[in-house]
Each structure stands twice: as C-alpha cells, then as structure tokens.
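Intended use. Records such as the DUF3593 domain-containing protein entry shown here are meant for training and evaluating sequence-to-structure methods. They are not intended to support clinical decisions.
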Amino acid sequence: MNKETIFALSLFPYLAFLWFMTKSKRMPKLALFGFYGTLVFVALTIPAGIYALKAYGDTLANVDWLHGGAEAFLTLANILVVLGFKAEIDRLKQGSTTPADRTVE
C-alpha cells in the first residue's frame, strides 16, 4: 500500500470523527470550526501540491511560499481548536452551565 492510498483512507476516520462530534452537540463550536478547518487545509493542500509539482517540478514542502501558506492555514485551524477548548475549560472552572461559545446545535 502506497502513501497516497494510506492518506486517502485516513480521511474516513477523520470524517467519522467530525460527523460524531457534530451530531453529539457537545463540542465547543469554535473548536469544531477548527477541526473542520483542518479538513479544509487538507483539501487545499492537495491542489497546492499538484501545482508545486507541475509549476516548479518539486514537492509542496520545497516550494516555500505555497508550503508557508498551507501551514499558516493549518495554524489558524489549530488556534481555533485551542481557543474553543480554552473557553470551555474557563467556563467549567467558573461553574457556569452556559457553554462559553455555545456548542453546536
């Protein structure tokens, strides 16, 4: 099994994770947006990798401006996940029963 096949197959567990977290309505909304942002990052990285190969004859990791843009998007998604859970932890520490950023409904 090659790395492309493994990559493609790895999307199914992640999609299942997103589906269950969305259906549970218990995930902080901001964190869930971050997890969806990670999926968007993957979707954008694929054409960027193809472009890097066609235009520069090299992998995405070696085309700095494309790779940096993709990584910046992933960083933003990760920040949303952290801020979503941080807000929820702060809410729980204060003993509040109202979710910090209103969970997905």
